Every structure is written in structure tokens, then in C-alpha cells.
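ok here's Heme chaperone HemW:
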Amino acid sequence: MAGLYIHIPFCASRCIYCGFYSTTNVGLQDKYVNSICQEMTIRPERPNISTIYFGGGTPSQLSYKNFVKLFDHIFRTYTVDTNAEITVECNPDDINEQTFNHLPVNRVSMGAQSFSDVRLRFLCRRHTATEVEQAVTHLRQQGINNISIDLMFGFPDETMTDWEQDLRRALKLDVEHISAYGLMYEEGTPLYKLWQANKVKEIDENLSLAMYDKLVRALTSAGYEHYEISNFAKLGFRSKHNSAYWHGIPYIGIGAAAHSYDQSTRSWNVSDIRRYIDSIEKGILPMEIERLDEETKYNDLVTTALRTREGINLDALAPRYKNYLLEAGKDYISRGLLVLEDNSLHLSMAGINISNTIMSDLMWV
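and the structure:
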């Protein structure tokens, strides 16, 4: 089985955090969807599909007609498992009483981000906190019983009390899955430029760590499983698609800037939408391919599997990499930052706080 990832790089508004731009060009959307269908046709892979994920930008900006076209083409092109997890990323304000009627979507991931309208305006998000709650109600009415929301913490001037209020409102929604991330100042985004101009200030690191600790304690106390550094799920509701990424299961990425992985190679399409469309219309796959050597596969494993609750299965490693990993990690193990049990290596709660440093030190060099 493999996963299918459909990249839809359209946003309803320019986001201060990610930097995506909006499109109101209906003709461009139609041409892009036609190109996605054509890419599926001309690609040689025909695996059985166990997960389908519409992500990147705001897929909920697609018209109903284009959703129908894409699903029709997916089910004609691939053999899709009858129990496949089919996820669409959405803005809360794009969801109404009929958004997914007669579509095979069974999981929705919403970018709630915050329940503070002030912080939502800071992110230039169109939706309000109330619309998040309304969206959950609409989805339940349409039979969507697997809902995930994204939260963000570490806003400039955000207090622990602010964060606790967000967590309470999130838990009140009783959704099946919650992802939470600290606000990042990534180079090239509008937020990074504001930070460079001293117009915003990063939150204190100790407060950010305390917010993460509060997140973990609040969600696990409410019955959520902390199964990946930033992800929490009720029993049976882990994200199957994202879990496949973390555990090295192959996936096909369709669309501009989409990435694919087949355990031997990693490939990615050109990111510019118009270049992507032009290439596909000529029958050319606009992709670059990287062949993965054993050292690269090991490093990929460190940066993906170590994020998960199960960690790295040592039995899956060749002896040279297993020995290297245990030698590189022995100091962290002795300090209780890495835990070695049941022939697996995983981060402790304290280790999660410095996970980037630990992963870097475990890399093959």
C-alpha cells in the first residue's frame, strides 16, 4: 500500500506565517486541476492506495466541480482501499453545511491556529474563533467523524493564561486529533521580515517550553495519545497518512512542489504552478529525482521515526548503523534524554525539548 498526496498551493489570503498567496483566478484553478489529473495519467506508478491527502495551501478553496473531477480521476487511476483514510486540509470559514456532501472525504484537518481573534488577525487569517466551532458542527452534520485541528503557540506577547484558554476551547470541541506547533520565524516568510525589522519579538524560550509542557499534560490528561512530537490523537485516530511519512512507507506526490518517496528515491515537482502546468501539458513530468544511498536513508530515519512515540526500531537497522546510533546516543541515553527499551530508541519528554540537537548528533557524518 502507498499514500497519495495532492498538493493544492492556493490560499484564500496571504498568510503572514507561511507566505502563500491567494488566487481568485478560476481559470488557473481549472487548468491546475486538469494538470494534476494528467500527471496521474502519465506517471508510471500504479500502487494500491491506502491514504489520500489533499494538503498544502488551502485545498478547501477548490470548487466542488474540481473536487469531483479529482476524485473521479483518482479512483479511475488507482486501486483505492475500501477503508482508505481520505483527508482534506481546510480553512474553518470554507466549511458550510454541504462542503463534503457526496464526496468520499472521511477526515478533515482544519487550521484553527488560535481561539483568539487578535492572534488570528495577526496571522492574517480570515476566520474567527467562533467559525472554528461552527465548522466542527457542520462537519459532524455531514458525517465526518475524524476531525483534526492545528493549534499554534508562542505568539508575541502571548501569556500562559492565553495558551491555557486556547487549550480549553480546543478540548471542548472534542475532536479526534490535535496538532500543535510553536510559532516559527522561517526565513523568507512575511513573519520573518517583521522579526528582522524588530516589529515583532520572539517569545521567551523558557515560556515556550512551558507552553509545550502544558500542551502535553492537558491533552494526555484528556485522553489523547501523544504519538508524535507535535501530534495527539484519541485511540484509533492517529493520522495514517502522516504516520506513513514518519515510518518510511512509500507515497506519491501529485502537483506543483509535491514530493514523492519510494524507499529508493525521493523526487519533487517544480514549484511554480505555471511552469508545472506548461510541462504537464507537453506530456513531461517536471520533476527532479534523488537516489538515496544507505547513509541518507539512515539520516532520514533519524529525523522521522525518532519524532514518533515508538522511535527507531533497532531491528530494522543494519549492524553498522545500529552500532553507530547506539554509540552516538549513549550520552543522551545515560542522561535520560533518549530511552532504550524493547529494542527501540525513542525520545523522553525531556529529550523532546532538545530533539533537534539530539537528531543532529545522531546523524551519519
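+1. The first strand starts at residue 2 and ends at 7.
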